[in-house]
Amino acid sequence: MKVALTSSAKTLADPIDMHFGRAKFFILADTETGKAVAHDNAQNLHAAQGAGIQAAETVARLGAETVITGSVGPKAYRALQAAGIKIALVEAVCPGTEALRRFKDNELPVLDKPNSEGHWV
Amino acid sequence: MNRSPVIAIASGKGGTGKTTVAIHLAAALLFHKRSVQYLDCDVEEPNGHLFLKPRIVSSETVGIPVPAVDAATCTSCGKCAEVCEFNAIARLKKPLVFPELCHGCGACALVCPVGAIHETPRAIGVVESGHAGSIAFAQGRLNIGEPMSLPLIRAVKAKRNPEAVALLDAPPGTACPVVATVRGADFVVLVTEPTPFGLHDLSLAVDTLLPMGVPLGIVVNRADGDLRVHDYCREHHLPLLAELPDDRRVAETYARGELLFDCLPEWRERFENLWTRIEEQL
């Protein structure tokens, strides 16, 4: 299964980025093979609006079935729902490897509503 | 000038007296036997009506066109999402529209190769028009929580009657709503107060509006002898049109929602003089 983690840098050893839309990187990890590839999110990082929507588009295009992150706003949530992507929530910053292990052990709660306010410019 | 001028009353800082100046200019113009229109473009918080107490005779809903995607026709090519500058369409299995981000430009419908997008209006507010005695009146009221104010401001400005002097009560600040209000005006009156904050925000407003090529003039409200705004006007070659003295009775009258001329007749002359000064600049 492919999962996308929001990350502050390029490897799973790096800390999770708690933001979804404006995460620095998405790391696409394969839970079966352990393969992990980082995707730069610089473009969305500086978007005036709709960063969460674009981020949802990106992870959908990457083929992720679940997103592991800290917070998801209302529009990103709607887009992820429409794409059929689940959201697993980390409550505090931790390395990507730990978030992934806890996800595999079913320790991460699944988000069933947005947990962050939308932002206006 | 053949047609009557459009005068915008703006300010950098909020609460300096835009509405006070706009409504009393309107009233003063009547004494000059001019037809006058007061157009409240401060659509997030229009307040001129509190003083002019207009009779509203029509109310029109203003909307912007937002895309609706026909899922059966859509081929999921993604061109609509790609062309959208505002990230209002997510390219998922089928396009997902976020109407609250849409600016209504119509590009998505234009680029759709199979005609799967048609536009439907999304209401953003109302334009109310009527009259306050001999003053023609219109104001925009933006829906609560609505971030898209520019189309409503344009709709208020569309109420303009070229036969009458139009006074546009602008929103405060220096952002798009001010620019949308001022665009096309013949003259801008910038109202400031003689404080460091007033001067600071005045200079921001001047920096925003000068590149638009609209002539500007300054009104100092609640003048109390501080001359920093005077120095600024001299340095920047901006005409100082009027100084309205700090007067507690003005604040009291304003707080009661009344016009100054009824109880403070000497103020009528101040605004008639201000109009004369504006006319000299046109």
Fraction of helical residues of chain A = 25-40%
Reading side by side through the largest sheet of chain A, how are the strands ordered? 3-2-1-4-5
Quaternary state of this entry equals: heterodimer
The CATH superfamily title of chain A: Dinitrogenase iron-molybdenum cofactor biosynthesis domain
Number of helices of chain B: 11
Question: Average pLDDT across residues of chain B?
Answer: 95
The low-pLDDT segments of chain B are none
> What does the largest sheet of chain B look like?
9 strands, mixed
Question: Largest chain-chain contact?
Answer: A-B, 17 and 13 residues
CATH class of chain A: Alpha Beta
Strand order of the largest sheet of chain B: 3-6-7-2-8-1-9-10-11
Q: Whole-Å distance between the termini of chain B?
A: 8 Å
Structural class of chain B: alpha/beta
State the helix count of chain A.
4
Give the ordered list of helices and strands of chain B.
EHEHEHEEHEEHEHEHEHEHHH
How many domains of chain A, as an integer? 1
Which secondary-structure class do the elements of chain A indicate?
Answer: alpha/beta
Determine the strand fraction of chain A and express it as a percent band: 15-25%
Could you please describe the fold and organization of this structure?
The complex is a heterodimer of chains A (121) and B (282). Chain A is α/β, with parallel strands linked by helices. Chain A has helices at residues 42-45, 51-62, 74-82, 96-104, and strands at residues 2-7, 25-30, 36-40, 66-69, 86-89. The radius of gyration of chain A is 13 Å and the shape is globular. The termini of chain A are far apart. The model of chain A has no long low-confidence stretch (mean pLDDT 92). By secondary structure, chain B is of the alpha/beta class. Chain B has 2 domains: 6-62 and 125-281, Rossmann fold (3-Layer(aba) Sandwich); 71-115, Alpha-Beta Plaits, CATH 3.30.70. Helices cover 33% and strands 28% of the residues of chain B. Chain B is built from 11 helices and 11 strands. The radius of gyration of chain B is 22 Å and the shape is elongated. The interface between A and B is medium-sized, with 17 and 13 residues.
